[in-house]
Amino acid sequence: MSERNTAIVLAAGQGKRMNSKVQKQFLEIQGYPVLYYSLRCFQESPLIQDIILVTGEESISYCKEEIVQKYGFTKVSAVIPGGKERYDSVYAGLCECRDCEYVLIHDGARPFVTEEILKRGLQKVKETGACVIGMPSKDTVKLSDEEGYVKETPNRKCVWTIQTPQIFSYSLIREAHDSIRQKDMSKITDDAMVVEQETGIKVALAEGSYQNIKITTPEDLDIAEAFLKHL
Questions:
Q1: What is the rounded CA–CA span in Å between residue 220 and residue 187?
Q2: Other CB atoms closer than 10 Å to residue 229's CB: what's the count?
Q3: pLDDT at position 186, please?
Q4: CB 24 within 8 A of CB 32
Q5: Contact 70, 105 (CB under 8 A)
Q6: Each residue of 166-185: pLDDT tens digit?
Q7: Which of 27, 61, 82, 132 has a 20 to 30 A CA-CA distance from 14?
Q8: Is the peptide bond before 165 cis (omega within 30 degrees of 0)?
Q9: pTM of the predicted protein model
Q10: Which conformational region is residue 12 in: left (phi greater than 0), alpha (psi within -120 to 50 degrees), or beta?
Q11: Residue 191, CB half-sphere, CA atoms under 13 Å: how many?
């Protein structure tokens, strides 16, 4: 029997940098909400058996009626409220998972995840147990000190910008989250950090796409529109 893979899609962000009353995941690109595109990818992928959608308490009815039901996303088994921080929303999603071997944690504000990205990520996670999607940085990166001066310039060949989904063995990521919730989580920015800190397991990198952008600012919507015109 093939493994059961669950996608946790996070759609609880407030999108303060978007300068819009509408949350960024619900803004439209060519007539569809941003969130629609990633859900469609998971819905259509034979690699994914279950989708858990995590959103704000006030958006649950909207997500159920105007996105899940409207567009026929039958793999969405639960629409649940998230927490105060991203890692709280992830944990809520992990607690909702049932009988899955691998879990893919994805930002609903990244509309351009593809089947090819899922294939590469799942192949890598089966080798390692923990994998993040990303791309080699196109730019030189500088690390600064507290006064705003350059402290270090990492070798660009070793610098990746990290995307989602981040993919893990379910037992590994659940154990790591259970453990770290007893500690200070204020510096946690992604799920790979949870695994790194709590298990010591090396997290592998798998190639995503330079088009797998996160919708964060108004300019990102213009870029997304341009991408869609060429798909």
A1: 26
A2: 8
A3: 85
A4: no
A5: no
A6: 999 999 999 999 999 989 88
A7: 132
A8: yes
A9: 0.94
A10: alpha
A11: 35
